[in-house]
Amino acid sequence: MTCPFLEYRSETSDRQFDESRAYCEAAKQFIQPMRADICNDRYELAHDQHCEIYLEHADEVPAGYGNTGQPASDLQWLLYLAGDPVIITAALTGGVQGKEATPHLPETPEEIGKAAAEAEEADASVVHVHAQKDNGERTFATGCFQEIDDEIRQQADDVISQHSTPSQARANLNL
Question: Name one GO molecular function term (predicted).
């Protein structure tokens, strides 16, 4: 069943479109095609269960349309479930920047391990990390990456650690 608030419009007060676009009467705005998939109950999604706009305006729904009363779920998670599986990679550290760019950027192995655990909790399956020397300079030293990997393994349950790699020109340097 299609959401009762969904309309397709080919014009606004000041523009005309070649193709009709999805418009949500409850939100009083045009909506993205992925949201229209929810409105049209595609990909095992149901507007009366998964659309927060519909749920906010459920009391305005015409007779004949039921509301399940279930809370709206995260749209990205629902779209993930509806489509092909994906691998989420979280880039935890800056390749060049450090804490001077943001104090939240993890630099130490302990901070990187904690960030990896948080990324895994948010459904990332891979973490991409850069290593730094104590002075903040970038390094490709295996010992530094080993310290980072040890912390990631200690703080996260089952995440893949992907190291940054030097370019071919730098690969021959003893960094």
Answer: 3-keto-5-aminohexanoate cleavage activity
